[in-house]
Amino acid sequence: MSKVETTYREAVRAGIREALQQDERVFLMGEDVGAYGGCYAVSMGLLEEFGEERIRDTPLSESAFTGAGIGAAMGGMRPIVEVMTVNFSLLALDQIMNTAATVRHMSGGQFGVPVVIRMATGAGKQLAAQHSHSLEGWLAHIPGIRVVAPATLEDARGMLWTALQDPDPVLIFENALLYNRKGKLAAEAGAVDIDRAAVRREGDRVTLVTYGGSLFKTLQAAEELAAEGVAAEVIDLRTLRPLDDATIMKSVRKTRRAVIVDEGWRSGSLSAEISARITEQCFWDLDAPVARVCSAEVPIPYPKHLEDAAIPQVPGIVQAARETLGR
Amino acid sequence: MGLFKMPSLGSDMEDGTLVEWLVAEGQAVKRGDIIAVVETQKGAIEIEIFEAGTVGKLLLDVGETAPVGAAMAEIVGAGEAPAVASAPAAQAPARRAPEPGPVAASPPSQVPIASGERVLASPAARRLAAERGVDLASLTGTGPGGAVISADVLSADTLSADAPAASTQAPEAKPREPATRRGLAMGEMRKAIAAAMARSKREIPHYYLQHTIDLETATAWLAAANAERAPPDRLLMAALLLKASALALQRYPDFNGHYIEGEYRPAEAVHPGVAIALRGGGLIAPAIHDAATLSVDALMAALRDTAQRMRAGRVRSSELSDPTATVSSLGERGVEGLWGVIYPPQVALIGFGKALVRPAVVDGGVVPRMQVQVSLAADHRASDGHRGALLLNAIDKLLQTPEAL
Questions:
Q1: Which terminus of chain A has fewer CB atoms gathered within 10 Å of its CB, N or C?
Q2: Is B173's pLDDT higher than 60?
Q3: For position B13, what pLDDT does the model report?
Q4: A3-186 sits in which CATH class?
Q5: B153 pLDDT above the threshold of 60
Q6: pLDDT digits (tens, 9 = 90+) for B95-105
């Protein structure tokens, strides 16, 4: 299997290009996705290749263009709506929550909304408190939509196509720090499942559960733990809703300890949900309280050193894992 | 006024369930009276009282479970007025409830689990310990905050290979039925033995000594003593071995006592626990009180009475809590020798094999002699081998003059 050097950004673009080539119902819309090539340069070159009909720059109104995307999906199209960051998606929350997530239910199954909404999430690029939050946990709270978070090149490349096949709304969260990440991707890489969590590293002493931008920090933490003789298992959730309980619980039953690494805030978070499920389903297998490494409960700061201090980092993950082992 | 509390009937006992009150409120009791039957891991135990007085309020209902140390009843001492009448005593402010004493004000159901004594253990450790009959309190935790975790239970459970069998239990082990049935609960007893023996091997640095004792003189003395006796009154060699052991333990207090909280505490009297195998499995080692001062005849009677009661499942609390050392005698159906496991917090176990006629060298010639092998398993924290050798030699010497026992 031949592999090619690529970046996360290029992998996302390859996924969009394939979808545009394979299905004429697919089009991309969002702020600056056309002439500018996307604020994270994901759609660079697509306007020239596919034209204005299919690569559509929109007015600066998340509610309007997300609603338009939902309407197009109900009308038989397969729109990909790009929202610059999850912070801005709050302007479209009414469309996502009150329309996209409810139409199948409220129409008695007559209408579905096969829209895909992509957005950037996460801190680390000094974009300050209105562009840096990780609110995917809020959106993963909503029944009626699927929420995925590709972390690897394979998932960045392959989740979009599968999401477009889903008859209901799918939200894709791309951590902004990952766009420049380089790696090797199989030349023939294609669609991947969006149902299951993946074990990214095997171990038997502690389970580290994470997703998205924190995956690589967590893998680095596992590497440091291995140097201390602690074999940590790393689970990449991939899909935040619905959660793949089976994979999480299987691992926790083996290791008896869990640390959840989530760039979201701690209170009322996805990490809280996962912790609750572990306690509900694995209580009698636990040898330590479930631990969490989350963002500090502050608006993400602008200064680099404060921004770094506010979000999960490798030393904190290593320390949390050590503590579950009584070290 | 005193409180009668749930006694500890062994280091592995955490709580007991009241099966039956054998006294009523207002009844006079004296030291040694059996006043209640309590179900424990070892079965239903008859609980004795160690003071004289009048039973006041009974604080525990039949069927209730209370931890060791929890109040079971009020006892009004001799000369004291009953609590009911005397509560508004001079020194007590009037608001101190007129009728129930201060203790009665808090129902027994609130007494259990003194928070300071709660074992810090993970859910996984608790589940495993319950499945395998391991006493969590006896383990040293290696988890967060010193919590006992599953790995600690697994490493402590020396019977882990037998664990599946232990959790399903032998057929005779019916589920524990508190408050309904007297007798020894075999399944629970197995668990208690497992916990005590695992703790012993984990914590006690055993050392072992062995010696062979010539029993020709003792055998001849016994035959003469039994010649005129009817079978039920005959003395057994076990009584002589026990008496000799008790006298030796009295002489060497390093072996007669308890190792508690990091220090050895010699006992004042010698109450050897006598290991008695039970039909259907299991083992119990009740104390023969003051064995060193009993005549051989009295000791024989005590042995018979104790063995019969144990096998009938009637055990007294003091018999379980008082042993100061253990004497295990395999008897005629046994083998030549045994190496004991000390019952914590005791510090010694004297083990006699089966008495056998064996070739021995006497005056330069090989002759058949009746002999017994005696072993000592002792706690090296409390004594050293030299003292152990003196103990075994003392038993040997005592058995050479059986008439003096």
A1: N
A2: no
A3: 77
A4: alpha beta
A5: yes
A6: 433 343 333 33
- The one-letter amino acid at B175: P
Are A288 and B143 within 8 A, CB to CB? Answer: yes
Q: Mention the CATH class of domain A198-324.
A: alpha beta
CA dihedral A32, A36, A38, A43 (to 10 degrees): 120
B232 and B375 co-located in one domain = yes
How many beta carbons lie within 10 A of that of residue B120, not counting itself?
14
pLDDT per position as a tens digit, B302-337: 988 888 888 777 778 788 888 999 999 887 778 899
How many CB atoms are located within 10 Å of the residue B105 CB?
11
Domain boundary among B165, B200, B235: B200
Q: Give SS3 for A163.
A: helix
Query: Do the Cβ atoms of B200 and B348 come closer than 8 Å?
Result: no
Give the gyration radius of chain B's Cα atoms: 24
pLDDT by residue (tens digit) across A286-321? Answer: 999 999 999 999 999 999 999 999 999 999 999 999
Handedness of CA B159, B160, B165, B170 (dihedral sign): positive
d(CA A301, CA A209): 25
Show the tokens assigned to B359. 């070739």
Interatomic CA distance for residues A39 and A32, integer angstroms: 7
Burial class of residue A312, CB neighbours in 10 A (0-12, 13-18, 19+) = buried
Dist. CA A257–CA B92, nearest whole Å: 54
Chain B hits for A326, CB-CB cut-off 8 Å, are 141-147, 149
3-state secondary structure of B9: coil
A31 carries an active-site annotation? no
**Pair of tokens at residue A232:** 């940590």
Residues B100 and B242 reside in one and the same domain: no
Question: Which residue blocks in A151-301 are alpha helix, DSSP H?
Answer: 153-165, 215-227, 245-255, 270-282
Residue B62 has pLDDT above 90, yes or no: no
Per-state percent for chain A, helix, strand, coil, to nearest 5: 40, 20, 35
**Contact residues, chain B to chain A, C-beta under 8 Å:** 122-127, 141-147, 149-151
Q: Taking Cα atoms as reference points, which of B23, B13, B31 lies closest to residue B73?
A: B23
Scanning the structure block, which residue is given the tokens 């477009």?
Answer: A164
Q: What is the pTM of this model?
A: 0.55
- B325/B346 Cα distance (integer angstroms): 6
Q: Considering only CB atoms, which chain B residues are within 8 Å of A289? A: 144
Q: How far is CA A36 from CA A55, A121, A132, in A?
A: 11, 20, 21
Q: Is A76 exposed, middle or buried (0-12, 13-18, 19+ CB in 10 A)?
A: exposed
Residue range(s) defining the domain that contains residue B176: 119-200
What sign for the dihedral angle of Cα A47, A52, A53, A57? Answer: positive
Domain boundary pick from B115, B144, B171: B115
Domain boundaries, chain A: 3-186, 198-324
Position with higher pLDDT, B163 vs B394: B394
Residues B125 and B27 in one domain: no
List Cα–Cα distances, A161 to A157, A184, B283, in angstroms.
9, 20, 70
- CATH no. for residue B388? 3.30.559.10
Distance from CA of B198 to the nearest CA of A (A): 22
The count of domains in chain B is: 3
Residue A202 a catalytic site member:
no
Facing residue for A284 by CB, picked from B127, B145, B147: B127
Which residues does B73 contact at the CB level (< 8 Å), separation at least 6?
B3, B4, B23, B35, B36, B55, B56, B57, B58, B59, B60
> B207, B186, B200: which is closest to B138 by C-alpha?
B200
